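The following record pairs a protein chain with its ligand, zinc ion.
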Amino acid sequence: MFTQTWNRDHYTFSDGFPQAQRENYHPLPQPPSQPPYQPAPPPIPTESKPTLNSSPSTPEPPGGLKIVHLPRDCLNRFLTIAKVNTARNRETCGLLLGKDRGSKYVVTTLLIPKQHSTSDTCTMDEEELILQVTEERGLITLGWVSYASSCFMSSVDLHTHSAFQRMLPESFAVVCAPTSVPNFGIFRLTDPPGLGLILACNAKEAFHPHPDSPIYTDAERGHVQMKDISLEIVDIR
Ligand SMILES: [Zn+2]
């Protein structure tokens, strides 16, 4: 049975970010006046680039990605759901499901799967129940969200996310860390070089260093945009 594990590194660091993670992190320029922020991947031969109805004030998504609309209250609602686990010093994870609307993807549903967790891990259980929800509702998995103590992608997070992004280039990871600054991040692997590098990594240890490359970057202010749209919560725990 497929089981997905989210895990956080135990690093000692003085300024909010472990050095190894900072070196792999490739932030967008602020403000993002010069998109795209990474080399564009080769065009996808099977489909033409969609025409996006972007206003002049809306930055173009990078690399030919479709825009993803994420309900603005999603993170607060997830934190409310996570509160019970948080009080017990346990992580919580969820899946962000949605629809393909042609020129964009729209997150419509926050699914809280059956899971077991510790203070720094969250593992989804009974994937067949997740598939049942997605198939019954005609939803696709657009991303995942986890509650963590710090706002960065651990090496385990990077490997977890590579499986999502390999299936759908627009996939993104949300890390909520209310007690840290910044208190949340929306990330994706760079492509190139991040996605290929992680997929090719055969390290046996769960936590391990990666080459000093810009492996992941912000998806917010990239192709993920917060919108005032409705969100359905499906909690199957
Ligand atoms: Zn690795």
